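Let us practice reading a record.
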Amino acid sequence: MKKNWILLLALAGAAVACSDSSGVDPDLVSGPELHAVRTALDSAFLHDTTLDASFTGDSGLYALMSALVFPFIDRASYIVAGGDTTRLVGIEFDIDATQGGVHITSNLTAILAWNGYDSTTSTVDTVFFVLGSGRAPPAVSDSLWNQFTLETAGTGTGFVIHQIANGTVTKSQSTGGHLRTTESHYGSGNTLGGGGTTLTIYKGGLSGQFTIDAAWGDSFKDFGGSAHAVKEKIRGSL
């Protein structure tokens, strides 16, 4: 499995050139802003020994997801509610492959949202990272818990991450809430392959909402009008 992920990471790196970030677009995410978001997430997850080992660490789910996803995030929607403006992007994984003769399918939906980017300190005030099982369509309707059961329909988890000006990060995991997605749409994908594995990247939109209850703050985000999204399809022999 590790060799296959190394291949996929290489494909992801090669596909950066396929990003369609050219042109003037108010939803474009600058490189420094995305770097600040990634730094907060890396600080929260890469070296945390209190979470499930399959999620944290240099070869855990978070590291693999971030390496496959971040190169393709160039836009994020603005979600405005009162005086709060949050940027949000949807991420969907569609895996249907074989490993050692065993058929593996995995459908995951993630929502990455953040607010309070400060270009002076290169930090973000708050990052929301929500994970659920399945993809839209059909609709995803997952309850958020403080455990990882993402292959079980109806279950998910989420995190609220805070970062202060000196870069220090604190986080709390969901104790309640939900993730719901209702509709997704994508354009034609960019496909790369090698060694019997293909990775296809799609850009489009995802509609839904999430509510997260956590020790460091509760929040509700509605992106029912469609938010920017990325879908990654993995096929072949792992």
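A brief commentary: The helical segments are 2-14, 31-45, 61-69.
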